[in-house]
């Protein structure tokens, strides 16, 4: 539908008859996520959403999905979303606006630490230092309830997923998959590289747009 004030072009498309998406392209980057999350937070604070038939809002790296009753006035919903996307702030400071910071103590004794180190030409202590040095942004929640997809991983830690996924990854596993890092909220299959363990209960308070800092526990 149009051009946002921050020079970000977006398009809309339906997924079935009860979900309309606003997409800012296909590139995963910090500014795109901040723009999506800015609109997401604005809508969450709008007391009129239920009167429009909107049931849920689901942000991803590059898009925002609006779930509503099929009989909803989609034109009105579209006008509301267009207004927000056409009036995005242009600076990161304005886009961030509100966020909660979470501290996750981590025992960096993950079984894939040697693999991450070897594939990236680093020592295990260097992997740990680099992973714990970043304040990560929660771009979205997905895969499983409360699983945070985090932006900000040091590029030197980019590591391919395992060739054969594990059938059981422990709850609280802190892991790296490609250019992403995250925390498994419960026991589940998974192919990411496990670098440590944390308390999965901490994930219950995490929301899209929040930040997470991993604090290394003494060995």
Spatial shape: elongated
Compute the number of strand runs: 14
Q: Tell me roughly what share of residues is in helical segments.
A: 10-25%
CATH C-level class of the largest domain is: Mainly Beta
Distance between the termini: 53 Å
Q: Which strands sit side by side, in order, in the main sheet? A: 1-2-3-5-4
Radius of gyration: 19 Å
Describe this structure in words.
- The protein has two domains: 2-96, Gyrase A, domain 2 (2-Layer Sandwich), CATH 3.30.1360.40; 101-216, Cyclophilin (Beta Barrel), CATH 2.40.100.
- The protein has helices at residues 30-44, 74-85, 92-96, 113-120, 124-132; strands at 2-3, 9-14, 19-23, 54-59, 63-68, 101-106, 135-141, 148-151, 166-169, 173-177, 180-183, 188-190, 193-197, 211-216.
- The chain is elongated.
- The chain starts with a strand and ends with a strand.
- It is an alpha+beta fold.
- The strands form four sheets. Strands 1-2-3-5-4 form a five-stranded antiparallel sheet, covered by helices on one side. It has a four-stranded mixed sheet with strand order 6-14-7-8.
- Helix 4 (113-120) crosses helix 5.
- The longest helix is centred in the first third of the chain and has 15 residues, at 30-44.
- Strand 2 and strand 3 (19-23) form a beta hairpin.
- It has five helices and 14 strands.
